[in-house]
């Protein structure tokens, strides 16, 4: 489990395309400290497994399903990525509960800068709007954010200077894809209420 508090901006240093998958080598001095084979690291909000680790770099395999559901397939050598290690039991939950299981990809629709923050408008994949509410939590490229406005096919977030300086949302432009993970609690509530209304829950 992650919290959506990005630890560092990493970089793709190598990409190996396989028949039905892809292998990335990534540089991240902070997240690789103490890393070992089998550890999890979130890359732009996608939970990946460390295959190899050497120095300040690690490799991770990305299967076809992940490439299809996320924006990792557009990454190339030199691409910057948000990196976060799993949260430790007993530590502070700085953002919100993030699984690293991307629900779909959105697209940066526009940016409105101001003196102290910036409003970013992002398209919302079909079927996800019911999980997004004003002032609710959402994860964009692995960043825990608060929804400002929620429409039927878009949402907006307000970014402080720290987020702009330390994450990919500071450099992404209109047309760029982003990974979106909605609040998992909303999905569980929907499932439980649906079972109660249909009577399935009582039958179990």
Describe the structure.
The protein starts with 7 loop residues before the first strand and ends with a helix. With 204 residues, it is an alpha+beta fold. The longest helix is centred in the C-terminal third of the chain and has 15 residues, at 184-198. Strands 1-2-5-4-3-6 form a 6-stranded antiparallel beta barrel. The chain has helices spanning 64-69, 161-166, 184-198, 200-203; strands at 8-17, 21-27, 40-43, 46-54, 57-63, 80-84, 104-113, 118-123, 137-140, 143-150, 154-159, 177-182.
Task: Summarize, please.
With 204 residues, this protein is α+β, with helices and mostly antiparallel strands. It has helices at residues 64-69, 161-166, 184-198, 200-203; strands at residues 8-17, 21-27, 40-43, 46-54, 57-63, 80-84, 104-113, 118-123, 137-140, 143-150, 154-159, 177-182.
How would you summarize the topology of this molecule?
Blueprint: E1 8-17, E2 21-27, E3 40-43, E4 46-54, E5 57-63, H1 64-69, E6 80-84, E7 104-113, E8 118-123, E9 137-140, E10 143-150, E11 154-159, H2 161-166, E12 177-182, H3 184-198, H4 200-203
Antiparallel strand pairs: 1-2, 1-6, 2-5, 3-4, 3-6, 4-5, 7-8, 7-12, 8-11, 9-10, 9-12, 10-11
Total strands: 12
Q: Main β-sheet: number of strands, strand sense, barrel status?
A: 6 strands, antiparallel, barrel
Taking pLDDT < 50 over at least 5 consecutive residues as the criterion, the unreliable ranges are: none
Alpha carbon gap, first and last residue:
28 Å
The percent range for strand residues is: 35-45%
Total of helices = 4
Helix/strand/pairing class, anyone?
alpha+beta
Rounded to the nearest angstrom, the radius of gyration is 17 Å
Give the neighbour order of strands across the main sheet: 1-2-5-4-3-6
């Amino acid at each position: 489990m992650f919290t959506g508090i990005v630890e560092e901006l990493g970089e793709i240093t190598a990409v190996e395309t396989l028949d039905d998958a892809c292998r990335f080598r990534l540089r991240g001095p902070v997240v690789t400290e103490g890393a070992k084979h089998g550890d999890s690291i979130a890359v732009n909000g996608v939970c990946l497994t460390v295959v190899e680790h050497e120095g300040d770099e690690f490799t991770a395999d990305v299967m076809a399903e992940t490439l299809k559901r996320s924006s990792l397939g557009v990454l190339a050598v030199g691409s910057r990525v948000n990196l976060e290690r799993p949260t430790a039991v007993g530590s502070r939950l700085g953002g919100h509960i993030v699984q690293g299981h991307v629900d779909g990809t959105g697209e940066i629709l526009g940016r409105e800068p101001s003196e102290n923050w910036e409003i970013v408008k992002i398209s919302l994949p079909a079927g996800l709007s019911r999980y997004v509410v004003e002032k609710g939590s959402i994860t964009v490229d692995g960043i825990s954010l608060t929804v400002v406005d929620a429409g039927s096919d878009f949402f907006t977030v307000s970014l402080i200077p720290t987020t702009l300086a330390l994450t990919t949302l500071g450099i992404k432009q209109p047309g760029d894809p982003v990974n979106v993970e909605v609040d998992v609690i909303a999905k569980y509530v929907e499932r439980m209420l649906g079972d109660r209304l249909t009577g399935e829950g009582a039958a179990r």
